[in-house]
Amino acid sequence: MYDKSLDKSCPLRKPFTTVSGKQINELYTPLDLENFDYSKELGIPGEYPFTRGIHPTMYHGRLWTMRQFSGFGTAEQTNERYKYLLNHGTTGLSVAFHLPTLMGMDSNHPLAKGEIGKCGVAIDSLADMEVLFEGIPLDRISTSMTINPPAAILWAMYIAVAEEQGVSSDVISGTIQNDMLKEYIAQKTFIFPPEPSMKLIVDTFEFGTNEVPRWNTISISGYHIREAGSTAVQELAFTLRDGIEYVEWALNRGLDIDEFAPRLSFFFCAHNDFFEEIAKFRAARRIWAHAMKERFGAKNPRSWLLRFHTQTSGVSLMAQQPYNNVIRVALQALSAVLGGTQSLHTNSLDETYALPSEDAVTIALRTQQIIAHESGVTNSIDPLGGSYFVEKLTCEMEEEAMDYIRRIDDMGGMVKAIELGFPQKEITNSAYWYQKAVEKKEKIIVGVNAFEKDHEPISLLEIDESVAKQHLARLEEVKKTRNSAQVTKELRDLKKAAEDEVNLMPFILDCVKSYATLGEIIETLKEVFGEYEEPIDF
Amino acid sequence: MTEKKIRVLVAKPGLDGHDRGAKVISRALRDAGFEVIYTGLRRTPEEIVTAAIQEDADVIGLSILSGAHGVLFPKVMSLLDQNGIDDIQVIAGGIIPEKDIPHLKKIGIAEVFLPGSSTKDIVRWIQENVSSG
């Protein structure tokens, strides 16, 4: 039946707004940039305030890292997928852990039933980690790990595996997400309350500076904030204000900003509105550079750099007509490249159904490779620089984000703002606004509220229950063969260290090397730190 | 006599921490005139059923994106059964493979709302299928 409610050309809806609801003018001219000072607002790439890019040569010197977030089933299965990805062109690894690991639980925890290996790889102890990286040279491959409350523990496991390979901790390179503020705001994998969580994070900054200098100790994230429903400006503002909060806490500990700041990194979403995203990335670099140099007085130019990873938006991908997602991802990935990202993950077309199948992740990877090698966009740095539209949008996003940042400053900082429920409420409101806009067809989603059509089912990755059996068998084996007395001693020393408020990394390393499990370490820390209970609101 | 409002318990079973959908739906249901209780994250089937009984819920809405529905939903249904509850409708949504739906309906899940469902669909379903008290 012909749907008369849409005329044949499906005219665009007025007003013309971004996916975030931000109004965009029909035309931008030099008048929009009156008083715009090229050297002050833009500069050249590699020079303060880095609006055009953090390196003088950007992709001429080195392409962004193609880093596909990946993990499912047992460590063996994920190890196989990592080798596949490395053989087909990814240039860095990124680990997705299953829900029990993310929540600091072992796979034999009652709450782990039905969850083992489903959303990521099951890791309970160093034994699993050894299998995960079997045959992968950690002196040559960098690895990002998406893990938050237990980040220090997984980092310790990685350091231990590298040591077993003969690779010392000053050689390994990678990132731990380790960003608890956005957990309370958006991703919601929290265990301990904010204060002990911040303390543990600063421990990792300190340890990283001294022992693991090539490691990004944190990935200050906006992706999850955006996916939870925020606008682009909220994503920008809350992420950068989180960054400011981490710097303040580290300075309160007495750390030297120019030693830890160069290893802070960021993580943004690449959502649907092409130009809004590009402006967001450029504004982010400028805001951070200003904050580090002017607000905090950092002297090392490397402290001023906002280095970021991008993931294309999962929530923008649809179940209906899943092949449409390939196009969405391509456009989003392009915006990240034009925005100067250092590292990129592209989602797979089966995003709304399951973890990526091998075929789907190959297309996602090829998307990046085609942009890199065929599109020509890497020939010139910040090619959209100087566009009246993009420069104006960059300035507006910076202003609007700074408004939010000042408001949070006035509340007493981000930890305080979270206690007040401020960022959480902003996100909930934006998410609700967007859903209503879609239902009113003010925002069109192709295949969902327009241009609908049945589609053929696609073949999906399945995680069957044999995964749980296999993995639990290894957990049992580890507990049988390890030195229990040693484990008990290490956990006891860890608990005392937590009570004494010293840096916990060396103690966590000792626990991990004795094959104490993730769950055992977290339970020990819970005894000292307590647990966070989220206030219920919608 | 004013009619008693339909009471909906929106629940997050298992470890899944994605609450955008559950919160949007909770608000939409409240705007549509239902009484809504949201359980918050990471509730066990036991906690969900206890809450449904204590809150005198007419509907339980289970929101899950982790793939653990195959283990958790049967547990919820069996706990309702054990407690002699036969007048609460249970609906679900999130990331649930279509091939799993027939089995879920067999165990008593009245309807499954997949990605792309509108809040209007859910409100209408409740209005048409649920009576209060």
The helix/strand order of chain B is: EHEHEHEHEH
Strand % of chain A is 5-15%
Question: In the residues of chain A, how many domains can be counted?
Answer: 1
- Biggest beta sheet summary of chain B: 5 strands, parallel
Our Rg estimate of chain A from Cα atoms comes to 23 Å
CATH superfamily of chain A: Methylmalonyl-CoA mutase
Q: Label the overall shape of chain A.
A: globular
Name the average pLDDT of chain B. 96
CATH-assigned fold name of chain A: TIM Barrel
Q: What's the number of extended β-strand segments of chain A?
A: 9
Our measurement of the CA-to-CA distance between the termini of chain A, rounded to an integer number of angstroms, reads 39 Å
Spatially, the strands of the biggest sheet of chain A line up as 5-4-3-2-1-9-8-7-6
Number of helices of chain A: 21
By DSSP, the count of extended strands of chain B is 5
Q: Which fold does the CATH topology of chain B refer to?
A: Rossmann fold
Helix content of chain A: 40-55%
At a glance:
With 538 residues, chain A is of the alpha/beta class. In chain A, 48% of the residues lie in helices and 7% in strands.
